[in-house]
Write a structure and sequence with these properties.
Blueprint: H1 11-33, H2 37-69, E1 74-75, E2 85-86, H3 89-106, H4 111-126, H5 130-143, H6 148-162, H7 166-178, H8 186-197, H9 202-209, H10 218-235
Parallel strand pairs: 1-2
Helix pairs in contact: 1-2, 2-3, 2-4, 3-4, 4-5, 5-6, 6-7, 7-8, 8-9, 8-10, 9-10
């Protein structure tokens, strides 16, 4: 599935979130300490709570980042002693599943846990374990944590379509069209919808794609034109 690796997660975004948490704590701690007495004690407790949460988040992010480094680990001799490597592709696959599985299990319900579930779903799909992939994508979708849930919806919709459940796939993509995210724009979702329904309703698919031909964002217009080209090939 091409979409599974279309957008790589950026750890600097996570780092920025941690930085904002620390800044929030520092600012409010200074304000609360001015109250003195009970206020100061409350400030210390609040600061401790937020700092603990920030620390816990950084631990989760580190575990997730470590798991992600295994995705592109070398198969065969490592170019240097600091880079992870594995003797075979199968060995790397097992290590990837183990690392992401630990994050998904230990940090279930957190953003990092959901991201780990997403990668486990993608890995299962690549290995042909479609039922497992579907189950894991649904965990991310049901979590409601955007924007990762929107990517999971697209992938799950593709699985549903491959199983003949096009209507279920349409519902998932329509929810993104109604509520786009920073990872999946409204236009990208419309193109995904057109591609989903093209085999069964090419006329409707073309109607969705035509307005995006000259869209200002070149990536969107190119994707729309490619999808229209696929429709033309489908008629031959």
């Amino acid at each position: 599935m091409a979409r599974l690796t279309r957008k790589e997660l950026k750890t600097d975004r996570f780092a920025l979130e941690v930085q904002h948490s620390v800044e929030y704590v520092s600012e409010h701690r200074r304000q609360l300490v001015l109250w003195g007495g009970i206020g100061a004690a409350a400030a210390i407790l609040i600061a401790a709570f937020f700092l603990y949460r920030s620390h816990e988040r950084s631990v989760r992010q580190e575990k997730l980042a470590n798991a992600m480094t295994l995705l592109n680990a070398q198969v065969g001799p490592s170019p240097n002693r600091f880079a992870p490597s594995f003797p075979t592709e199968a060995d790397r696959g097992k290590a990837v599943e183990k690392a992401f599985g630990e994050v998904a299990t230990k940090y279930a319900g957190t953003t990092e846990g959901d991201i780990a579930e997403f990668y486990l779903a993608a890995h299962a799909a690549d290995a042909g374990r479609i039922d497992e992939a579907s189950k894991r994508y649904k965990i991310v979708v049901d979590s409601g944590k955007e924007p990762y849930a929107s990517e999971a919806k697209l992938s799950l919709a593709q699985i549903y379509a491959s199983q003949g459940k096009v209507a279920d796939g349409e519902k998932l993509i329509q929810s993104i069209i109604d509520h786009p995210t920073e990872l999946v724009s409204k236009e990208e979702a419309i193109i995904a919808m057109a591609q989903l329904i093209a085999p069964t309703d090419p006329a409707r698919a073309r109607k969705l794609l035509e307005p995006l031909r000259g869209f200002p964002r070149s990536a969107v217009s190119r994707a729309a034109l490619n999808a229209l080209s696929d429709l033309d090939q489908q008629k031959k």
